[in-house]
Amino acid sequence: MKDRKVVHQWKRIALIEERVELPNGKQITHTTIAHPGAAVILPIDSNGNIVFINQYRPSLRKWLLELPAGTLEADEPIDVCALRELEEETGYSANEIYPLGQVTPLAGFCDEIQHLFVAKGLSKTSRYQCDDDEVIEVLHISLAEVEQMIINGTISDAKSIACLSKAKLCGFI
């Protein structure tokens, strides 16, 4: 095996197998999902509700209630990605966007970094276009309902829970 081999490529995501030297000097073969990164957006409407999407996830074969999010395009600034994904998945644009930092959701086997944002000053736009593999419905849910849905397991999406937690800790909600 070469030092780095692309086992499979899909869009901008790749399965990579490579030789890695660990900090203790041991050499291993490690398989990583190489991901360009993503933006996760917590949109807050004028009534203080959170705009969620209910999206069918083929990998789980079920609907998942989550915040809008999406993968970075080539050479795209992360805040531009956040605004684009918000509009594509919800049909809303935002006048204000606040970065909340980042999370590493699957560090054991994926190099994806998810950048978290809060979006305010929402305006409905005519643009609402899902990718070919997306089936989405848009919902406005109060914070109290969202928190109860996390407690009872209705919301189980890790990136959404992380973004909501960070936004709450930072005083945005």
From TrEMBL:
<dbReference type="GO" id="GO:0006753">
    <property type="term" value="P:nucleoside phosphate metabolic process"/>
</dbReference>
<dbReference type="InterPro" id="IPR020084">
    <property type="entry name" value="NUDIX_hydrolase_CS"/>
</dbReference>
<dbReference type="InterPro" id="IPR015797">
    <property type="entry name" value="NUDIX_hydrolase-like_dom_sf"/>
</dbReference>
<dbReference type="GO" id="GO:0005829">
    <property type="term" value="C:cytosol"/>
</dbReference>
<dbReference type="GO" id="GO:0016787">
    <property type="term" value="F:hydrolase activity"/>
</dbReference>
<keyword id="KW-0378">Hydrolase</keyword>
<comment type="similarity">
    <text>Belongs to the Nudix hydrolase family. NudK subfamily.</text>
</comment>
<dbReference type="InterPro" id="IPR000086">
    <property type="entry name" value="NUDIX_hydrolase_dom"/>
</dbReference>
<feature type="domain" description="Nudix hydrolase">
    <location>
        <begin position="33"/>
        <end position="163"/>
    </location>
</feature>
<dbReference type="Pfam" id="PF00293">
    <property type="entry name" value="NUDIX"/>
</dbReference>
<dbReference type="GO" id="GO:0019693">
    <property type="term" value="P:ribose phosphate metabolic process"/>
</dbReference>
<protein>
    <recommendedName>
        <fullName>GDP-mannose pyrophosphatase</fullName>
    </recommendedName>
</protein>
